[in-house]
Each structure stands twice: as structure tokens, then as C-alpha cells.
Amino acid sequence: MADIRVKICGLRTVADVDAVAASGAAYAGFVFFAKSPRHLDLATARELALAAPPGLAKVALTVNADDAALDAIIEAVPLDMLQLHGSESPDRVAEVRARYGLPVMKAVGVADEGDLAAIFDYSTVADQLLIDAKPPKSAVLPGGNGLAFDWRLVAQRRWLRPWMLAGGLTPENVAEAIRLTNARQVDVSSGVESAPGVKDHARIAAFVQAAQ
Ligand SMILES: O=C(O)c1ccccc1NCC(=O)[C@H](O)[C@H](O)COP(=O)(O)O
């Protein structure tokens, strides 16, 4: 069995956390972005984080959050990693990493070859990279849109840091995405939902099984 690490993003209930833990996924993602159907208030996020068993890494996803917002999240929610999913600069990534002492994963949106340079820029300051589909200009959400990018753009590439493939992955296509790109980590949200923000536990299990 290939050692592929899976992140399931956008959990909203303790039952979601239980399903992710049972699936063998490595990371559970909690979204803090008010416009998202997956947004969590601090009390709910804390409850979910406390329900996660040891070994399931708890990741807080934020979008251009300022220090006050991050302070509030860090104070309320036990976490293992921060995921920055906005237009945070490399300097801001370094600042967040130093301020909180947690590993930081920076999301980079990819639509064409020209977007790949940013991966190198962030790889000197972030602990991990999340290579995601660039959202359409009209999108309300900067991620979690269920859209894939052309995986050939990152096929067999090596970066300075561990990276995760994201964007439009599903139980049906994740094995092919891994085969093509040689990604060792994958991230999914929409592809394991029955409706926006509603996780389908059978699809979570199917996704992890297909990835591995
Ligand atoms: O999921 C959200 O609602 C979200 C909101 C704001 C910024 C990012 C968001 N999700 C980012 C993720 O980590 C997703 O898992 C990733 O973009 C892949 O999403 P999907 O294509 O839906 O699997």
C-alpha cells in the first residue's frame, strides 16, 4: 500500500471528525472563512479539535487573517498546523510561522505554467505547500470550489518542501491524479460532500481507500 497522506478539509461536525479518523486520513481541515459553507465558529472548532484522536493532525484554514483573528483561533482551538489560503505574501507566511510556532502550509493556486514560480517563492518560507486550482475570478471562495487544474503542469515535479495536491479531487479521480503527478499527499473538500459543507462519510472512506 502506497503511503499517501490524505487531508479532508471543511469538517463541520464531530461525526465528520470520527469518519475522517476512521478512514485513516492524516489531516483534518477546519475552515475559518465567513463566506464559506464550511465556516466554523471558534466554539465548534474547539469541540471538533478536541474530538480528533492523536495522530490526526488538526489544520486551521484561514484567508488573509490578521494577527487578532489568528490569535483568537490559536487561543481557542488546539491545532497542529496553519493553512494560509489567501494572498498572504512570503513575508507574511514567515511572520505567521514565527509568531505561532506552528508549521504553516501555504496554498498556491495554479491555472497555467506562469503560476508555478510562486511555488518556489513560498517553498523557502512555508513548511508545506498546497498546490490547488486557481479559483475563477468570479468565485466567492478562494478554494474549495471542486475545480481541478491541469495536473500535467506539476507532473513528476519536485519542490523544496512537502506538498499536497488539491482541487477537484474525488474518489473517482484521485488514483489517476496521484499516478500522473506522483503527489504523496492529497487534499479534498467538495469531492467528498453530498452538498456544499455536508460531508459524505462513505465518500470520505472511498477517497482515502482510492488514494492509498
Ligand atoms: O473549503 C472552503 O470552503 C474554503 C474556503 C476558503 C478558502 C479555502 C477553502 N478550501 C480550501 C481547501 O483546502 C480545499 O480542500 C481545496 O481548495 C480543495 O477543494 P475542492 O476542490 O473542493 O476539493
UniProtKB/TrEMBL annotation:
HAMAP family: PRAI. It is an enzyme of class 5 (isomerase). Keywords: Amino-acid biosynthesis, Aromatic amino acid biosynthesis, Isomerase, Tryptophan biosynthesis. GO terms for molecular function: phosphoribosylanthranilate isomerase activity. It holds the Pfam family PRAI. It comes from the Bacteria. The gene is trpF. GO terms for biological process: L-tryptophan biosynthetic process. This is N-(5'-phosphoribosyl)anthranilate isomerase. It catalyses: N-(5-phospho-beta-D-ribosyl)anthranilate = 1-(2-carboxyphenylamino)-1-deoxy-D-ribulose 5-phosphate. Pathway: Amino-acid biosynthesis; L-tryptophan biosynthesis; L-tryptophan from chorismate: step 3/5. Belongs to the TrpF family. It comes from Gemmobacter lutimaris. Its EC number is 5.3.1.24. Residues 6-210 form the N-(5'phosphoribosyl) anthranilate isomerase (PRAI) domain.
